[in-house]
């Protein structure tokens, strides 16, 4: 099997694929996510469509430089009450985001698009609904202080695979989608197309 090209610098996505027996080579796409997101928001695009468009932009960019390759582009968007939250810019920004979301529900939309020989052949957007507990200001401030090095690169200012799990009272959806990769659907597609053995 020729390796999948992962159009992402995300270490957790690479690890998830590797641990599930999918060899992949990493080739970060380096697209201007903010420009794409801003343009789509100005057109009234939904968070789901934005996640899908960002994943496709990454796959398309890498596929254009990798003739004949199978390329996987991914992106994750956090939808909180109709607003898309980005990665926090500072510890203070992380505290503001977490305090706004506490005691409420938000959604993570994890998109994946696969290109084969520079053409899109498959796409999926997984949705997870997460319910935050009503954590105190002090706990949130301490959490951000203890975890800033890790969460500054995370949408929503938390990582569920770390201490961030303590922020939640309930999660409805696939754990892999929370991690930013609709892994089960990707594995199913790769098996159906014969890339992975049955």
UniProtKB/TrEMBL annotation:
GO terms for MF: nucleoside triphosphate diphosphatase activity
Location of this chain's protein in the cell: Cytoplasm
Catalysed reactions, as listed in the record: a ribonucleoside 5'-triphosphate + H2O = a ribonucleoside 5'-phosphate + diphosphate + H(+); a 2'-deoxyribonucleoside 5'-triphosphate + H2O = a 2'-deoxyribonucleoside 5'-phosphate + diphosphate + H(+)
Residues annotated as the enzyme's active site: 75 (proton acceptor)
The protein's enzyme class: hydrolase
GO process annotations (BP): nucleotide metabolic process
Enzyme Commission code(s) on record: 3.6.1.9
Top-rank taxon, per record: Bacteria
A GO-annotated cellular component: cytoplasm
Any Pfam family the entry gives: Maf
Keywords, alphabetical: Cytoplasm, Hydrolase, Nucleotide metabolism
InterPro entries: ITPase-like_fam, Maf-like
Required cofactor names: a divalent metal cation
CDD domains: Maf
Family stated for the protein in its record: Belongs to the Maf family.
NCBIfam families: maf
Function text: Nucleoside triphosphate pyrophosphatase. May have a dual role in cell division arrest and in preventing the incorporation of modified nucleotides into cellular nucleic acids.
Name recorded for this polypeptide: Nucleoside triphosphate pyrophosphatase
Organism, scientific name: Kangsaoukella pontilimi
Phylogenetic classification of the source organism: Bacteria, Pseudomonadati, Pseudomonadota, Alphaproteobacteria, Rhodobacterales
